[in-house]
Design goal:
Layout: E1 4-5, E2 10-11, H1 17-20, H2 30-37, H3 45-48, H4 63-78, E3 83-84, E4 90-97, E5 100-110, H5 111-116, E6 119-120, H6 127-140, E7 142-143, E8 147-151, H7 155-165, E9 171-174, E10 181-187, H8 190-201, E11 206-210, H9 212-228, E12 240-247, E13 253-254, E14 256-260, H10 268-275, E15 279-285, E16 296-301, E17 304-310, H11 325-335, E18 349-353, H12 358-366, E19 372-375, H13 381-390, E20 400-401, E21 412-413
Parallel strand pairs: 6-11, 8-12
Antiparallel strand pairs: 1-5, 2-3, 4-5, 4-10, 5-12, 7-21, 8-11, 9-10, 13-20, 14-18, 14-19, 15-17, 16-17, 16-19
């Protein structure tokens, strides 16, 4: 069962939300955050990217930067830019991209569910990235930014959410960078909150969709606090961390594509010939060609687009990893032909999120920066859940979720 609870969110007043809210800390660098914040002292970047308060070049990992995050968090509350709700609530957070809306429930997720594997992951995490976020959680004594979960479709919760969606939201704005609509409702009715708690209690698992490092950091700090408290009872607020949970079928996963700097010493003709061992190769001409189905790839090389269809026997439909196109392309193209063994560390490859479109792949190859590009069919949420259920880990750079959660709509205090 998935244990969740409502919490007393710390939120901006309605009239300030567009000045406070921001993109997540990990989708932009320090200079981009500095530029976006500009002279807006209410921007959440002063809490989640506080290096912008220091001279250019100051490391985001400098101890004084973490301390400034805590100072700014206190300042935001003192000035009334962030205000804690008097009562515990669940919240609804909706995002609309290209006419499609997905609705998430903002909840306190249970630390022990993460530690015991009831909150399931599909990616490896790096300890240095975990420690960075753990420092941020510790110094603020809060989950400033949410993590992004998925849950199996649930008709009862869907009806409840749709009922609120017909009412006027607390927040409703178009974000300036992504151009997507973001809406937010407060659930204060005790009966509705009980329904949400009960329905989650029937779910065997929750699934991390995006934000594996934030999830690990939030849970590990909660576990630390349990160990450090000699009077620990299990009901303390630090036993929970903030998550936005979406129905799995609503989520949009975009393709996550590859661009490669060279052909590993092969000519274009030799490279195409090598591909024919495991793929049916078809020249599609000069117009952008997008993969139409699972196990089909698009290759851009020398101004032409090619369809690559994996041959029978090159993948295992019964293996949750072996069936993935990211695994097929990694094994049979990037490793076997291009000799790129480690996608995480190789300097010969880069990755392009699907929101940029296949035109970005063409641009980077035509510029001479890259030699060829490979476009993949998107992974499905069902595939991610199957992998998480099997206890396996997805290959790196496999998923790209859009839209990203905005930060600053609500914060969870640990005490």
């Amino acid at each position: 069962m998935a244990i969740i609870k409502p919490f007393k969110g710390i939120r901006p007043p309605k009239e300030l939300v567009e000045q406070v809210e921001s993109r997540p800390y990990d989708v932009l660098n320090s200079e981009e955050a500095r530029e976006e914040a500009g002279d807006n002292e209410k921007s959440l970047y002063h809490i989640i990217k506080p290096e912008i308060d220091f001279p250019v070049g100051t490391s985001e990992y400098d101890p004084k930067v973490y301390e400034r995050a805590a100072e700014n968090f206190r300042k935001f509350q003192e000035k009334g830019w962030l205000v804690q709700d008097a009562q515990e609530h669940y919240y609804i957070y909706a995002q609309t991209m290209n006419g499609k809306t997905q609705y998430g429930l903002v909840v306190g997720a249970y630390v022990d569910d993460y530690m015991k594997g009831n909150i399931k992951k599909h990616e490896l995490t790096r300890r240095d990235k975990e420690e960075d976020r753990m420092k941020h959680v510790r110094v603020n004594d809060a989950n400033i930014e949410p993590v992004f979960f998925a849950y199996p479709d649930n008709e009862v919760l869907d009806k409840l959410i749709m009922r609120y969606a017909q009412t006027t939201p607390e927040y409703d704005f178009i974000a300036p960078i992504d151009g997507f609509r973001h809406q937010f409702w407060v659930i204060s009715d005790a009966q509705d909150m009980q329904i949400i708690t009960d329905e989650f209690g029937k779910m065997p698992s929750l699934y991390i969709a995006d934000g594996h490092h934030r999830s690990a950091a939030a849970a590990l700090v909660g576990a630390e606090k349990q160990q450090q408290n000699p009077n620990h009872k299990g009901t303390e607020e630090y036993n929970y961390f903030m998550a936005v949970c979406f129905q799995a079928s609503q989520l949009t996963i975009l393709d996550y594509n590859r661009v490669v700097k060279d052909l590993n010493g092969l000519s274009s003709e030799e490279f195409l010939t090598a591909l024919k061992k495991n793929f049916t190769v078809e020249d599609k001409g000069t117009e952008i060609y997008k993969p139409a189905r699972l196990h089909e790839f698009s290759l851009y090389l020398d101004g032409h687009w090619y369809s690559l269809v994996a041959k029978e026997g090159t993948y295992d439909d019964t293996d949750p990893i072996g069936v993935l196109d990211v695994d097929i392309s990694s094994r049979l193209i990037l490793d076997e032909i291009s000799d790129i063994k480690d996608l995480r560390s190789s300097k010969r490859i880069d990755f392009v999120g699907g929101l940029r479109g296949l035109g970005e792949l063409k641009k980077r190859v035509d510029s001479g920066e890259m030699r060829m590009a490979l476009a993949l069919y998107p992974v499905s949420m069902q595939q991610i859940m199957d992998i998480a259920d099997s206890g396996k880990i997805m290959p790196p750079k496999a998923t790209w979720f859009e839209p990203k959660l905005r930060s600053g709509l609500v914060i969870h205090k640990l005490s």
